[in-house]
Amino acid sequence: MSVPSLKKIAILLPVPFDQTFTYQVPEALTVGRGDYVQVSFGSRTLIGVVWGEAEDVAEEVPAPAGEVITKTRAAYTLKPILKKKDLPPLTDQTRQFIEWVSQYYLSPLGLVLKMVMAEPSVFKERKRKTSKEAPALQPRVPVVLSEAQQHCASFLAERLNGFHTVLLEGATGSGKTEVYLELIKEASDRGKQAVVLLPEIALSAQWVARFERRFGEKPLLWHSDLTSAQRRDNWEKVARGDARVVVGARSALFLPYQDLGLVVVDEEHDGGYKQESGVFYQARDMAVVRASFASCLVVLASATPSLETLVNVEQGRYERCHLGERYAEATFPEVVLVDRREEKGGGVPGSQWISKPLYQEMKETLAAGNQVLLFLNRRGYAPLLLCQACGMRTTCKQCDAWLVYHKSQNKLQCHHCGHGEKPRTVCPGCGAEKSFVPCGPGVERVMEEVTALFPDARPLMMTSDTMTTMKQAEAMISKIENREVDIIVGTQVMAKGHHFPHLTLVGVIDGDLGLGGSDLRLVERTYQLLHQVAGRSGRAEKKGRVLIQSHRGDHPVMCALLVQDPSLFLALEKESREMYGFPPYGRLAAVILSGRQAPEVEKAARALAAVIPRVKDIEVLGPVPAAMSRLKGQYRWRFLVKSPRTLKLQAFLKRWRAAAALPAHIRFQIDVDPYSFF
Predict the structure, then answer these.
(1) Is residue 210 a contact partner of residue 475, using CB atoms and an 8 Å limit?
(2) Does residue 494 contact residue 379 with C-beta atoms inside 8 Å?
(3) What is the domain count for the chain?
(4) What CATH number is given to the structural domain containing 44?
(5) Which has the closest alpha carbon to 527: 572, 583, 576, 489?
(6) d(Cα 598, Cα 603) in Å, to the nearest integer?
(7) Residues with Cβ within 8 Å of residue 294, at least 6 apart in sequence
(8) Would you say the C-alpha torsion 233, 239, 245, 246 has a positive or negative sign?
(9) 280, 147 contact by CB (below 8 A)
């Protein structure tokens, strides 16, 4: 005897499982792929997405008389869909993108969906605003493009009809933004949606103001500073196709676009596009994947393209459009190297971190009524406090890291876990009183020197500590634009994207800061960062100058910056990476084990090493304690997996993970294409 199957649907839920769940569809309800539905999941009620029809799962059930009959499990255990939500369905393109991200990064399908369903409040019952179709973008002021800009704009517009990846390369101040703003208007005229990714929330304020001046309206914003209500409204506008232009952080890539026609990744080289928690993904790379599913153009814009992107261009995977000169009358700044080794005893009285040449240039710049930017990519006052009596360093209780001294708040803070405490007056190591002294400079210490050396100047410190919201960023940028600031002291939040016409001098306090360490991209990042910060100078008709203080003037990065020719170090970087099989010439994946008890984590790492699959051309390094062996109270061990570029690591990693019988309290993480090696 058989029992007919009821209609069953596979629902993907935003929970950390790599599977769909089967539910029954009530007779009165019609649902299709991509529909948002409400279901009961355990003791909770969740919103999920219809992923497709579920297959019948048959099981044998004993009949009362002992006869065995086969019935579908759905007839007995399936829960019904409770409600269908009044929202446009998730498009096939977005669902394919979710599956691709999950498979490539080996992350649970439900976690990737959770990134798409970013704002839970959007699904609550409420009175919805009347949907309005976004108006076409109309330039408020005419923009005259240079011949080079017009060429690039036309080149890119010809590629709006299908999937293409184009590197828009141009010097700082060459007008890359104006080129892709033309492209955004073209996509909007065709009724398509466009998304622009920016690596820093601080960049959003000036970018939005520029867009509004150009088109008389604001784009839709997506970043962490939005309120829950703003995120709800903006998410729904994207989902309904009412938002034509979206600008935001890397997570904006995962919004549920209805008709995506253009993706722009500004400052594509920036390491901030790599997500280091939850789903480990690289937004630049996923922008290319998303555009491929949407059959649309993706533009990667940068003055200092990543080595990965340059190699993709060389190998014909990407196209390139180049802007060689700065826009209008602006010229490139002159770069001068200040060798701190030659300044023994001859520095500025009362200054430890500002050299005599930089001090003199600052005086002349301020006297001319122009602005100065001092750059040091180190937050706080000093990277550590040291006991002069016994040498003890102040360290974090949760991490293997020094506590950074923030003098302005009179606190010590871990920049990895956020732990904070008051500075101690007595050394716990030797009992000496008031023996702790700050070692090394942070931006607060530089700011202190600036105030002492230039008491009449108006300084402003710009870091992620002082620009925690977009409103704060807008206020600070407005001050600089209105010439209410003479000297800016900042970290990497000031290094890219900003346009200040009266800023004519950039001083790099420590050009060597990023040249040491084991990160394979460290040298490349240092060049990119210093080149970008140098590009803040002389962006209008006034000539700019850049002074870089260094103890390593003969380093290839310094030589390249002096003559403004990245090929001086790129050739060496390519040769080194190719020799050792590192990206972009090979593939890497990190496997990280972590737990509360150090011996148990080590034991798990040894056990995992014993079941490494033997596969030709795949090399596994480790296990070793992580460079930061304790993070947020978790002890950590790492493996590094290497393979040729032609070999996909996912099958190997899945097989290895399946063979690992690890205790439940040991966390197992896979980071495909890692950017962090600590």
Answers:
(1) no
(2) no
(3) 5
(4) 3.40.1440.60
(5) 572
(6) 9
(7) 93, 163, 257, 260, 261, 263
(8) positive
(9) no
Q: CA neighbours within 13 Å on the CB side: how many for 18? A: 12
Q: What average pLDDT does the structure give for the chain?
A: 90
Q: What is the pLDDT of residues 653-669, one digit of tens each?
A: 999 999 988 999 999 99
Same-domain pairing of 496 and 620: no
Length of the chain: 678
Contact 342, 357 (CB under 8 A): no
**pLDDT band per the 50, 70, 90 thresholds, residue 126:** low
Cβ atoms within 10 A of the Cβ of 324, count? 9
Q: Is residue 289 part of a domain?
A: yes
Tokens of 503: 């800023």
Is residue 290, in this structure, part of any structural domain at all?
yes
Q: How many C-beta neighbours within 10 Å does residue 226 have?
A: 17
Q: What is the β-pairing status of strands 503-508 and 545-550?
A: parallel
283 and 358 in a common domain: no
In this structure, what token pair is assigned to residue 206?
């000036």
Please state, as a whole number, how many other Cβ atoms lie within 10 Å of the Cβ of residue 352: 10
Strand stretches in 125-208, DSSP E: 164-170, 193-197
The full 3-state SS of 360-386, as one line of letters, equals: HHHHHHHHCCCEEEEECCCCCCECEEE
Query: Where are the strands (E) in 202-343, listed by range?
Result: 220-222, 245-248, 260-266, 297-302, 319-323, 334-339
Nearest to 240 by CA among 132, 113, 88: 88
Residue 660's domain comprises: 586-672
Q: Is pLDDT at 132 greater than 90 in this prediction? A: no
Give the H or E element holding residue 46: strand 44-53
Q: Which residues contact 194 (CB under 8 A, 6 or more apart)?
A: 183, 184, 187, 188, 244, 245, 246, 260, 261, 262, 263, 264
Is there a domain that residue 256 lies in? yes
